[in-house]
């Protein structure tokens, strides 16, 4: 069974050229020229992977990616952004919107195909899937690769496939500092130059979902100049410490929001001056 790819791109020549190359590589390909048609096709057919341009008519690529991630039918479909926007801020925006990978134009076809196959290997319904299904567990964290399930302090946590792979990579090396180059090779399947920002964005996403206070991480630590380290407690008191930290953080956030609402407006309203007045 062939894997299906939805390519959403407004440039007709690019659409046809890449579609031909993907078909030659053994994929089934669907095409859409704008964000509205792309969203409709994605929800109708649920492809194995989506290749998405950013500068699309009607609905731009970032907005479309966010919509697809919010919909349960496409929340786990791998999304590769293929765009001429090469700035670091553009890349961060792409990952923050929910993209799994980001490649800039012009691109090498062999590199694109390699990235596609890496993304498809993470998909549990793809013929490229060949992952380790061994359950990993340490202290409060349990990963079930077969179903991409995460249990964190006895509660399920929803992660994207890429976030799951990143956490899996760190948990396999619990207590060790994992270099960015090893993370990129293990999770993304390649070692692009100067692509540390890609890791930073996804580490930030993990901290938001797992840490009681993401601004002051307790478990997913940055080892400056060396990489990242996952340090989990193995004692029974860990649950209470986590709950206490979480409660304090939530209380502080609620108090901050309450103070903000109660604060008087610093602006003022002036009556318009009449001509000659």
Commentary on this structure:
Helix 4 (88-96) packs parallel to helix 8 (196-210) and helix 6 packs across helix 7 (180-188). The model is unreliable at 125-130 and 265-277 (pLDDT under 50). The chain has two domains: 4-121, Rossmann fold; 136-230, Arc Repressor Mutant, subunit A (Orthogonal Bundle). A hairpin with a 2-residue loop joins strand 6 and strand 7 (141-144). 42% of the residues lie in helices and 17% in strands. The longest helix is centred in the C-terminal third of the chain and has 25 residues, at 238-262. The strands form three sheets. It has a five-stranded parallel sheet with strand order 2-1-3-4-5, with helices on both faces. It has nine helices and twelve strands. With 277 residues, the chain is an alpha/beta fold. The chain starts with a strand and ends in a 15-residue tail after the last helix. The protein has helices spanning 12-24, 35-45, 61-70, 88-96, 109-121, 161-172, 180-188, 196-210, 238-262, and strands at 4-8, 28-32, 49-52, 79-83, 101-104, 136-138, 141-144, 149-152, 155-157, 177-178, 220-223, 227-230.
Distance between the termini: 79 Å
Reported by name, the CATH topology of the largest domain is Rossmann fold
Helix percent reads: 40-55%
Based on the structure given, which CATH architecture of the largest domain is correct? 3-Layer(aba) Sandwich
What is the domain tally?
A: 2
Low-confidence spans: 125-130, 265-277
For CATH, the homologous superfamily of the largest domain is named as Response regulator
Structural class: alpha/beta
Write down the Rg: 22 Å
Spatial sequence of strands, sheet with the most strands: 2-1-3-4-5
**From N to C, what is the helix and strand string?**
EHEHEHEHEHEEEEHEHHEEH
CATH C-level class of the largest domain:
Alpha Beta
The overall average pLDDT, rounded, is 82
Strand content: 15-25%
Q: How many runs of DSSP E, i.e. beta strands?
A: 12
Number of distinct helices: 9
The largest sheet, given as strand count, sense and whether it forms a barrel, is: 5 strands, parallel
**Shape, please?**
globular
